[in-house]
Amino acid sequence: MRSNQTATPASYSAPSSFGGLAPGASAAPAARSKAAGPVLAGATIAMGLMAGLFFAFDVSVMPGLAAGDDRTYVTAMQHINKSIENGMFGLVFVGAFVATGVAAWLQHKAGRRQAALWAAGATVLYVVALMVTMGVNIPLNNQLAQAGDPSQITDFAGVRAKFEGTWVATNMLRTLLCTGGLAALTRALVLHGRASR
User: What is d(CA 95, CA 42) in angstroms, rounded to the nearest whole number?
Assistant: First the structure.
């Protein structure tokens, strides 16, 4: 008795995947997962650099200037504020925000909820630091610059008094915020490493 059905050769079967991907699957999630670690590490480094910069002002730059006379203080701070406006600082200053936010998103997409929450917390802390910078420190820097060339300033004590106390206090706050962000990113990095094992 012959069957009307045509048998499929045993040597042939339809592939269930192509290039290691199941039908309908996308390489994008895998790419995001691979990028999650390096982006998180980059965010941690950038946050550490910002925390270190602010900390250096707290423990060396500002105390050192505080020991000098009013003219030296105003002149030095004008030069420092002008010198820090460079590409390297801008890259780290903005990059810390972008990298931290992207790191939180990538951790979330990879299903690492706890790591994503810690990275998101770091993002919030850095956003607050940016708000302090934009709302207080930069306006004070601009006000100091508007005082004019030191050779034309007649009241160095008055210019310094309007700047020093508030700027130093808010810089300490930025240090605390960025240090908290660094701690949060470090925790996220540890959780990422555990999940990747």
Answer: 9
